[in-house]
């Protein structure tokens, strides 16, 4: 069960983006292209599918990262002889960011390409999730943008889940739970006591902001709520209010563009905070470009997540990931996609008596948590009938510094841990 901040931010993003711009259903021709078969196929290839909202309204690169990391891992597996002598054949599909497109991708991959499993799914609207579940196709290491990974059997999100996942309702009878470890960490390690939460006067944004405020209040913060007009936002006025409030931290329920504009406004009016806290989707090497007009706020960016910082080159698994990715832009989502492909590969290799979906799922459901050689915080699927009241939760924390990039904070992520309350919320 991911932390409250991580668990809900993706739900908010999906709902807000649906308001920002309508999702089209037309798919490009390349959406259904299979990766070319390399020479020397040998035994029958093992076919896996990757679905991403590559041409979603959010922008061309917003959902690409996990698939890029997964494909790089499978390339490395194939270079070493594949999985038990079988080359991994990756079939990709761009669903265009729409439910119609997602259903089309699911149909094409499962019914036509006959993929064995899906890996690193990253989509804006996972409308095809019930079909994947009914087909018994394991979906491994997907990003939980929405409630599918806390609802359906055979779906295994990258952060794990304690929910029963009966297919009837997300979480426990439609209620999800998340912890407050992010807020606890900043209170303990940075002495934060006051936090500003910025949202639009739009339903999805306001709901998420109230959820963040509840988590902060549970940790004893004084919360300053700021709201922007969705049509004509006055970022400078909100930035000035944040400065006058004496806030140590800033959390937001804004889209990526609004986030950057808020940062620029904070610089323009001279507002300085201990941390402008962002999430794993923005944990990437494009920060200097995305925040080029806000050097002060840029250097106050902090990110939290459940995977090891892609800049921690002292760790052997991170070094292997970076060698495979080359010299291009890097992101935390790429690292998590790499870990998802590793997870599938390890599960497949565990099937010494013969590769079956049932065998793969036994590995995924085993009692021992999975860590992807230390790239992930321990991931498990416990299927609890009742949600726990508290939970020991850990987190990965990094801070952006110009000239150094994302610098890990607070030591190893496996020791950034607290026992925190689990706060209920009902997704929209």
Automatic annotation (TrEMBL):
Organism, as annotated: Streptomyces peucetius
CDD domains reported for this sequence: PBP1_ABC_ligand_binding-like
InterPro entries: Leu-bd, Peripla_BP_I
Pfam families according to UniProt: Peripla_BP_6 (PF13458)
UniProt keyword annotations, A-Z: Signal
Name of protein: ABC transporter substrate-binding protein
Family indicated by similarity: Belongs to the leucine-binding protein family.
Organismal lineage: Bacteria, Bacillati, Actinomycetota, Actinomycetes, Kitasatosporales
Keyword Transmembrane attributed: no
């Amino acid at each position: 069960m991911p932390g409250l901040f991580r668990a809900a931010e993706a739900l908010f993003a999906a709902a807000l983006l649906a308001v920002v711009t309508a999702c089209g259903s037309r798919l490009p021709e390349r959406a259904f292209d299979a990766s070319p078969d390399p020479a020397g196929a040998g035994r029958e290839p093992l076919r896996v599918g990757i679905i991403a909202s590559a041409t979603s309204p959010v922008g061309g690169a917003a959902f690409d990262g996990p698939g890029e990391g997964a494909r790089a891992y499978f390339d490395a597996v194939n270079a070493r002889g594949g999985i038990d002598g079988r080359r991994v054949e990756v079939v990709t599909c761009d669903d265009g960011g729409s439910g119609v497109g997602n259903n089309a991708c699911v149909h094409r991959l499962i019914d036509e390409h006959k993929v064995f499993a899906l890996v690193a799914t990253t989509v804006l609207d996972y409308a095809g999730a019930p079909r994947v579940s009914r087909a018994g196709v394991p979906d491994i290491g997907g990003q939980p943008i929405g409630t599918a990974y806390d609802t359906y059997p055979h779906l295994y999100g990258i952060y794990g889940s304690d929910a029963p996942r009966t297919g009837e309702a997300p979480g426990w009878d439609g209620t999800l739970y998340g912890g407050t470890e992010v807020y606890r960490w900043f209170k303990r390690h940075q002495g934060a006591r006051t936090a500003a939460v910025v949202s639009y006067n739009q339903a999805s944004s306001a709901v998420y902001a109230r959820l963040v405020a509840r988590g902060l209040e549970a940790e004893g913060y004084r919360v300053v709520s700021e709201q922007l007009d969705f049509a004509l936002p006055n970022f400078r006025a909100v930035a000035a209010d944040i400065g006058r409030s004496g806030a140590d931290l800033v959390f937001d329920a804004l889209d990526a563009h609004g986030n950057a504009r808020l940062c620029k406004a904070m610089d323009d009016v001279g507002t300085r905070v201990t941390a402008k806290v962002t999430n794993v989707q923005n944990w990437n090497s494009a920060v200097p470009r995305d925040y080029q007009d806000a050097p002060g706020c840029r250097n106050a960016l902090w990110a939290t997540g459940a995977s090891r910082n892609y800049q921690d080159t002292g760790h052997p698994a991170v070094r292997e990931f970076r060698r495979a990715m080359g010299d291009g832009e890097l992101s935390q989502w790429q690292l998590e996609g790499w870990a998802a492909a590793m997870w599938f590969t390890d599960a497949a290799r565990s099937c010494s008596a013969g590769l079956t979906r049932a065998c793969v799922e036994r590995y995924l459901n085993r009692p021992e948590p999975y860590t992807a050689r230390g790239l992930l915080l321990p991931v498990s699927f416990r299927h609890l009938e009742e949600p726990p009241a508290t939970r020991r939760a850990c987190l990965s924390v990094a801070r952006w510094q110009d000239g150094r990039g994302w610098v890990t904070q607070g030591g190893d992520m496996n020791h950034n841990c607290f026992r925190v309350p689990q706060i209920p919320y009902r997704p929209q």
